[in-house]
Write a structure and sequence with these properties.
It is built from ten helices and ten strands. It is α/β, with parallel strands linked by helices. The protein has one domain: Collagenase (Catalytic Domain). Helix 5 links the parallel strand 5 and strand 6. The relative contact order is 0.20. Bound molecules: zinc ion (2 copies). One zinc ion binds next to strand 1 and helix 9. The site of one zinc ion has 6 residues, from strand 1 and helix 9.
Length: 276
Amino acid sequence: MQHFREDIRKLEQIAEGRKFTPGKIFRPGKIKKQDRKFVPGEIVRREPTTFKKGNIVRREVSESNSVENWRREWSSLQGTNYGWINQRRIVIFSESTIEQAVINQIKQGVQDLINQLRLNFSITQGIIDITNLIRVHTLPNEKLNLQSLAQSLTTTEQKSLLGYGGIHACVIVLDRVFEGVNVWGMTEFHNGLMQLALPNIRRRDHNFVRNVAKHEAGHLLGYYLHHDDRKVRGYRETNCNMMVSCASYGTCDKCLDAIRYFWLGLQQRTGIRFFR
Ligand SMILES: [Zn+2]
Ligand SMILES: [Zn+2]
């Protein structure tokens, strides 16, 4: 519980500070080259995780003692100050080299999670080509300068162009990797931002791209944990899309319940309808 409160406080601080500082939030993985495939995504919280021998080792796994407590925890989470959730729209922008078939997989992954939860969010493809924008924030080594892009996204110009920051959530699909952070995806619920790092070699396995997109959608919809972070008595332990590996497509009942009850709680407090 202690651990849980700290997580929330940190999220609130990040939100209040209005700072998007991935370099601080995300710990660059000390992960061996051959394990890169198994580090698709991260969210705004890394403390309970340590990296050891190329694998992610949990320092502690906290336990909720019942399904009821787990649901109560999630339904009491705050999250009402974040503009994009009022519109319940998610828009995909990509570099021009990303194939339509790949964008379709991403869209499908996000849509499938929305459908499973019966949320009334929509996902569409934006008409703006972000190739030039991304180029400006690309380092000489062809990697994306996250800090620089993040700062640019908060300018008035980009806000009106991409609708970022309160209008809808943005999914940004890159034909390159992030500088300094060895993951496939980085997502922040508070900022309504999902960034996918998909250079050509990562786009070959369409099923896996879809897995990653669904996984990141879980984070975008407020699930700031990974499946393995919490054990809850009463749920059957199965492979789950919210595992760090993103190896499977199915999302387990524990993780689905967390997201579902998070939105139910918000719905109750705000009066906004988030379900179909
Ligand atoms: Zn993740
Ligand atoms: Zn799960």
